[in-house]
C-alpha cells in the first residue's frame, strides 16, 4: 500500500527533461513530471514486443488472475492515487470525482479480467465446421487524455492485457503523474515489460507511437482533429484503431416531464467532472411548455453544488484542468452573452484568480446556432435551447458532425425510445446522461470516432479474429 508521499516520490522525475506540475486549483507546485523522447519510446516498444509472446503464452486464465491482482493493488493504494489525481487534475476527492475514478479503475480492471469470451462455433452442420477465435494483436499503443486520466487509461490497458497484448501508454502532458502512479501500482504485480509508459509531448512521442510499425493497435481518447491525424499517421502500417473522439452531446426534454424530478440528473449529466467529460450533456433542448420550469429547477440544483479546491472534502466541483480550457469556456460564454443570450447562473469568472475556476453557468434563451451550442465547451457552461416542435429538436441534435452520446427525457419510456432511434449517436440514454457500465459497449458515431470499448465487444476490439475451419 502506497501513501501519497511515497507514490509521489516514486513518480516524480529525478533528472532529465521535466515539466513542473502545479495544482490547477491552488497553483501549488506538486512535483516534476518526466518528459521523455522518441528514443525512450522506441526502447519501451522493444521491451513490450519482447515481453508479448510469454505474456500471451500464459493463457487466458493466468492473465485474468494477474489483472485481478492488479485491481487488488489499485484498491490497496486507492487513497494515495485519489489524492494525487485530485491535486494534479483538479477534481475533488468526493462526489463522482477522484475517489470514484480510482474505484472505477479497479472495477473496470476486474470486468476486463472476468468477462468470458469463449470460442464461438460458427458452423457445425455435419459437413462444415468453423470456429471463431480471438488472438492477440501484439503491442497496443494507448494515448490517454487529461480529463479522466486514470480511468480511461484502464479502459485501454486492461482489455489489451487480458487478450494477450502488451501495452505502451503515453499519458496526457498535463496529467502525467497520475498515470505514472497508476502504472507503477499495477506494475507491482504484473510481469516486467508487459505494461510500459512513456510520458512526453504528443507532437513527438505520440506521433512516433502512432507511426511505429511495431504497434499493432492504437487506442486514443481525445479530440477529433487529433484523431484524424492519428488515422493519417497510422495508415501506412494499416494499424488497427479504436478512436473515442470529441462529443457535443445533445439532450432533448419532452413536454411531459416533471422538471423538479429530472433537475438533479440533468445537472450531473452536464456537470460531472466540472463538465470535462466527452460524453457529458453539452447542449440541452427543452420544449417550450416546460422550458421556464426546467431552467428554474436546474438553476436551483446548480446553485447549491459546492465548487472549490479538490482536497477539501466538502467540494464536488473543481477547477478546469488547464488555462487553455478555461479560456475556451470563457470565450464561448462571453460570445453568448454578447449575442443577447440570458445568463441564468454564473458567467462571471475571476480571471485573475490563481486557480482555473469557472463558475457553474447556465445560459438560456440562446440561438441554436450560437458558438456555445455548436462548439464543444468541455467545461461548466450549459446552453439551454427552447424548441416547440419535436422534429426541430431532433434535427438540431443531429445536425453537428459529432455523435458520441445523446439523451431523451420523458415520462413515456416508449416514446423516448422512438425518439432515441432517430438520434445519431453511439449511445442514447433515457432520463439520464453519461452513465457508463463496464459490460455495456461504448463508442461514437460520425466524427466522434469508431470502435467500441467495454464488455465482450471491448475485448474483441483489442484482438485479431481468426477463423479455424475444417
TrEMBL record:
The active site is at residue 244. Pfam families: Aldedh. Residues 14-467 form the Aldehyde dehydrogenase domain. Keywords: Oxidoreductase. Belongs to the aldehyde dehydrogenase family. This is Aldehyde dehydrogenase family protein.
